[in-house]
Specification:
- By secondary structure, the chain is an alpha+beta fold.
- The two termini are 25 Å apart.
- The longest helix has 21 residues.
- Strands 6-5-7-17-8 form a five-stranded mixed β-sheet. A three-stranded antiparallel β-sheet has the order 14-11-15.
Length: 506
């Protein structure tokens, strides 16, 4: 480890502070806070700004199923520009090969170290055992705190610990790569390692989603096609009582192509009363903005900048205020506490609940225990979130990416790629009576292998980061006295400052 990198990591340990804004949803629906770091930008060192101009970057981070590219590696470069914009090279094309990474892979009984940022489950432990058996190795798992992951990882690396397989979450991007915790994976995976949309059971690397973990022309982590998927859950019993059953059931409307923001509002107007709403605080978690294809940061692989002038953001918040303020309110910010709090939904205070697909079993159990669902798990309905009118390409929002990278100084980067592929195809049958049905899982796969986009990183500054600022905007706009355009304009400067701190080490 060179002196510059060592000093950088030591500074990280010294400068990490405490705050949280985002969440990771576990396999069992549990939630932990994300990115408990407020000063990670202090360790970022980029060249001085040049006077070169950056063309307007499109807000496109889209994955289309089954796509694969070929080519050879090229030399990456990074050129900062005026203000908060930094030119970032796209990763090189994936090398063409017929040999997957696991071909002949044998670690010869050595111990591999794995760092993970969440509490692992018995399913994870079983998968690790199977990986050990398949590739003749032992895996030593180190569980780090999710909300202090970057600080804990920095401390471990500073002490000389080397990890072969390192967890990464989209909200850590790009700070974790700039700080030098991961090695580039260029050339470690090839076209033979990419997943096939027609053979999902075989697993594999999702090239385009993995580009979400690229920085300065390199892939620093990889992921399979599976990741978090938002879903709208609803109480079928209450919906049926309000007349929304049969062809008017939300899932039926989705299947017939008649599922939209306007239909959501229409249903809300019919079912909302003085004490029961269509949805609660969870509807304010950015879904209405995201599914209208709005992102607070735009980054197309060549430039990064704030994006609050995008009319898709303005239009989404305008609609959110229309259905949450005044006499036309059908969603209520004060109902529930947000996050994974489904109590209002379970207790009949809301018809719908917006959260991750991994929450299914938790909610099915709650439905089986709630009189508002007739104590019947089958009264738990589910439907994809509708596309907003400005999301013309119908790209489904998948929140945060998660993946695995190779730790700095590890000897064999193939371990990270092989583990990612192994996880992507791992399937363990569940005996739980609350497990998601096959139809639900098929719908999730359909969403994940279609056109999707995701949050573009956390971009942590000295005291905040972009997702936290988005939460602030949403909260301010629940006050009818706050002007929408003025609020967005005010936060343009705040996001610019945050990006500048992150990207240029201010």
């Amino acid at each position: 480890m060179n002196i510059k990198r060592a000093l950088s990591i030591i500074l990280t340990v010294c400068l990490i502070c405490s705050f949280s804004a985002c969440r990771r949803v576990g396999d069992n629906g549990s939630e932990t806070s994300v990115l408990d770091s407020s000063a990670v930008s202090e360790v970022i060192s980029l060249p001085e700004s040049s006077s070169s101009d950056v063309s307007s970057a499109d807000n496109s981070v889209v994955s289309t199923a089954g796509s694969s590219n070929s080519g050879t590696a090229s030399t990456p470069s990074s050129n900062p520009t005026n203000g908060n914009q930094v030119v970032i090279e796209k990763p090189s094309e994936v090398t063409v090969s017929n040999d997957p990474v696991e071909k002949g892979l044998d670690f010869g009984g050595r111990t591999l170290k794995l760092a993970v940022g969440y509490t692992t489950t018995s399913t994870f432990a079983t998968m690790v055992k199977a990986f050990e058996s398949t590739y003749n190795c032992k895996i030593e798992v180190t569980q780090l705190s999710f909300d202090k992951y970057l600080a804990d990882l920095a401390a471990k690396v500073t002490s000389g610990e080397v990890f072969d397989i390192v967890y990464v979450h989209g909200s850590f991007y790009p700070n974790c790569f700039i700080k030098g915790f991961y090695q580039p994976l260029d050339g470690v995976f090839t076209t033979a390692d990419l997943y096939d949309v027609n053979n999902l059971a075989a697993g594999g690397i999702d090239k385009v989603k993995s580009e979400g973990f690229s920085w300065d022309g390199h892939y620093y982590a990889v992921t399979g096609y599976k990741t978090s998927v938002p879903m709208l859950y609803y109480n079928k019993k209450m919906m049926a009582a309000a007349g929304y059953t049969g062809q008017k059931d939300p899932l039926a409307l989705y299947n017939s192509g008649d599922w939209s923001y306007q239909k959501l509002q229409e249903i809300g107007k019919q079912v909302t009363t003085a004490s029961v709403y269509l949805g609660g605080r969870d509807f304010f978690a950015g879904g209405l903005v995201a599914f209208n294809r709005g992102q607070f940061v735009k980054m197309n692989g060549t430039a990064v900048s704030e994006n609050l002038s995008d009319p898709r953001i303005y239009n989404a918040y305008k609609f959110q205020r229309e259905i949450s303020l005044g006499s036309g309110a059908v969603i209520n910010y004060k109902t529930g506490t947000g996050g994974q709090d489904y109590s209002a939904f379970a207790n009949g205070k809301t018809y719908m609940f917006y959260n991750d697909a991994s929450m299914y079993s938790t909610l099915a159990k709650a439905a089986a225990e709630s009189g508002y669902f007739g104590k019947n798990k089958n009264n738990l309905g589910y439907v994809p979130f509708p596309f907003g009118p400005d999301n013309t390409e119908k790209e489904y929002f998948i929140k945060w990416l998660e993946g695995w990278g190779a730790g700095i100084n590890c000897k064999d980067k193939r371990a990270a790629v092989a583990f990612t592929k192994f996880e992507s195809k791992w399937a363990e049958s569940s005996n739980s009576k609350y497990a998601a049905p096959a139809e639900f899982n098929a719908l999730v796969d359909k969403l994940l292998t279609g056109k999707v986009f995701w949050n573009i990183g956390g971009f942590a500054g000295k005291s905040t980061y972009v997702p936290g600022l988005q939460d602030e905007v949403c909260a301010e706009l629940t006050d009818p006295n706050n002007d929408l355009a003025a609020t967005l304009e005010k936060y343009r400067n705040k996001i610019n400052s945050c990006l500048a701190e992150c990207l240029q080490g201010k």
